[in-house]
Amino acid sequence: MDTDDIGLFGPGSVTWKVHEEPVLIVAGLRSLYLQALHPRAMAGVAQNSNYRADAWGRLVRTATYVATTIYGTTAEAEAAGRRLRGLHARMRATDPATGEEFRIDEPDLLRWVHVTEVESFVSTARRAGLALTDDEVDGYYTEQRRVAALVGLDPADVPGTAAEVAAYYRGVRPELRMTREAAETALFLTAPPIPWKLGPTARLGLNLGPPRWAYLGVAGTALGLLPPWALRLYGGLGLPTTALSAEVGVRALRLALAAVPRRYREGPLQQAAKDRAARLAAA
Question: For 85, how many CA atoms within 13 A lie in the half-sphere containing its CB?
């Protein structure tokens, strides 16, 4: 029955183990800082979305898509993939360097987005304190090829181990650079408009309450968790202790989130997936 279909992964998968971590909100932001360094990918986003005007709506839609691929039924995950492929197929952008028009669903661009996302998820979870063996990390990358297939990639062309991811990054780094759009996007990611207005500054029309400072802490941690080569492309942001400070920060955040009751830190798709898994185990 579809109602008891476990989906692409399941309770025994490394994917479920990694995505159990609410601290992956930091990983999502880290991946966006990375993605902005690819001029062609950045042009595709800038020319086809209103992310500045609808930053939080875009974030919610992206998070829902990821949750559907991880915790939805197989049919739900495949339907989400079809919708995304259909959306991408209609989009074009102009290369800022050459003036060439290109499709934003080019395999090279899809692969860049996929790799930066999954590498951010698993590396952030590990640095936050989740115990993962090297074999489990490789297993995560291999499992995530199923998600890559949903957006139209050939799984055989997607890195499936940590060594393959490292080799992929080495190969793509000559294409990466700090452009004006990358700088503007990084600044926007670091200080976006906050939808909540709390504290005494709200009545002055300012947005400097607790949510702003909390978000700045998360953004700073995400930046500090970037690979050293990415930080160099951003102009060497941070002090030599940035990586260590970010790791301490993300571990502290993980501990804090662990204290939040499960019903508040698990989304409805995740809860539904666990219910299905429990029914299957009982059967």
Answer: 14
98-142 per-position pLDDT tens digit: 999 999 999 999 999 999 999 999 999 999 999 999 999 999 999
136 close to 17: Cβ distance less than 8 angstroms:
yes
**Contacts of 87 by beta carbon, 8 Å cutoff, 6+ apart:** none
Q: What's the rounded Cα separation, in Å, for the pair 172 and 170?
A: 6
Residues 146-169 have a mean pLDDT of: 98
Kindly indicate the confidence band of residue 51, based on its pLDDT and cuts at 50, 70 and 90: confident
Cα 32 to Cα 42: distance, rounded to the nearest angstrom: 10
